[in-house]
């Protein structure tokens, strides 16, 4: 006889497995899964024929696809994938995928919020492991804003998290604060959570064209070859807190500037997804101005196709244009806490053809640009008046001409 339980909201599949084991007196996962199989009338089927996650869905009374989307990390790990992207998350026809990775974790270790545990015991008489707290990059409880506790052993999910309060480590306040106060990190988490509700993954080939265009608009390199443009991986290093970033992709923060990091820099160029979903999400969150715009782009395969998304971009453009004018072209005077993070905005300004025009003692790049463009003076005369070097003025002219440069590149391709 099987004693069945109803899964809690957002309860991780392994947490549900552990609760079923405890209430049924099972000494191992195998014993519990065999008990469910006998109860369901499939005692002879192997775990490949009837995967563990499907048995849990049967025990819960929830349809398999719905159970996977509500209690497994599979939808997160498959947010963007080239492996059978047309197959829905939890599709019962795809037994091999459910058998091999149906209950795989999205990150190492087990995480919990002590305040959540206290709440669970008070209201439900028992505590459980929340799926959301097991997602990459989540350092703080979304309900209580407390830094999460964590323990290294994955087997911890089979027991109540209450058992590990004294044995666990607490995420440092510094790490939790840096992650929780960073706009790009917040977008990363919001986009990942939203994509988990998609019935099926997004194919890389569907999304990469839009990603490549946005990367190009920001003046970044769209490939892993030699180029004068900055690498996406270097841009990522500017956008995220490094300690937090190391927890997502180990080794990324240790790379040298201008050296290719293939998992990131090749993300818009691969025909097959050799990068993880977390790597895609890192790039997406860093190159879009809002989670909403990023989601619209990924789902449509085109860049900013909807009116609301265009309005967001136009509002930011007008605001930055006014700030650029008011600051007389000085980047260091443009940034405001009301805008998205500085690195993203400055790259956007560059993509518009608005270069940085600082004054350095007796030289003035503003005077140089006004002399050359507004007054029609020669390059040599502009150098003399502004006391700015010829090389610097030529570099500014190239920045101003970014749009014709992009057109010339496209002409060469044709």
Structure description:
There is one protein chain. This protein has 414 residues and is mainly α. 50% of the residues lie in helices and 3% in strands. The chain has helices spanning 13-24, 29-40, 52-60, 64-71, 74-77, 95-101, 114-124, 173-180, 183-195, 204-217, 232-239, 242-248, 262-265, 277-287, 291-300, 307-326, 342-351, 365-374, 379-386, 390-400, 402-413, and strands at residues 110-112, 149-151, 169-170, 359-360, 363-364. The strands form 2 sheets. The protein has a 3-stranded antiparallel β-sheet with strand order 1-2-3. Helix 2 (29-40) packs across helix 3, helix 9 crosses helix 14 (277-287) and helix 18 runs antiparallel to helix 19. 40% of the residues are buried.
How would you sum up this structure in a few lines?
50% of the residues lie in helices and 3% in strands. The chain is mainly alpha-helical and 414 residues long. The protein is elongated, with a radius of gyration of 26 Å.
Secondary structure: helix percent: 40-55%
DSSP strand count: 5
Characterize the overall form: elongated
- How far the N terminus sits from the C terminus, by CA atoms, comes to 70 Å
Count of runs of 4 or more consecutive helical residues: 21
State the assembly state of the protein chains.
Answer: single chain
Largest β-sheet summary:
3 strands, antiparallel
Strand order of the largest sheet: 1-2-3
